[in-house]
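in:
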């Protein structure tokens, strides 16, 4: 099953405002990070958005989370770290390595950086 097929169908609403919004944000974020095209229409369902901000972290981190949150989360009033799904298999592109370097101090070897989808299309076969 393709990555796109895994998020195409709308999951059942759980009835928990935060969790329903978080699931919508995850699907939209994965579309951006995996270069899957536009997010599925179900991610724009009003039930997938919060009315009040939710900071996924301690109170002292609010300013950081406001700045770092990816757009898919921020537009739903969910404020989280820059790569909230870092344990998921994401492309280890420049964005991933920038965050990893900030978090751990580890610098990549040049051959560890995966090209982005747009960079791949520019590489001659």
């Amino acid at each position: 099953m393709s990555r796109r097929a895994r998020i195409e169908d709308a999951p059942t609403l759980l009835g928990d405002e935060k969790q329903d919004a978080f699931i919508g944000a995850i699907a939209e974020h994965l579309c951006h990070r995996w270069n899957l095209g536009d997010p599925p229409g179900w991610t724009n369902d009003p039930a997938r958005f919060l009315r009040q901000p939710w900071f996924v972290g301690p109170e002292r981190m609010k300013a950081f989370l406001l700045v770092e949150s990816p757009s898919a989360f921020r537009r739903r009033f969910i404020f989280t770290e820059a790569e909230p799904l870092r344990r998921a298999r994401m492309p280890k592109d420049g964005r991933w390595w920038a965050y990893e370097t900030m978090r751990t101090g580890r610098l990549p070897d040049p051959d560890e950086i995966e090209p982005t989808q747009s960079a791949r299309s520019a590489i001659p076969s």
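note: The beta strands are 54-55, 78-79.
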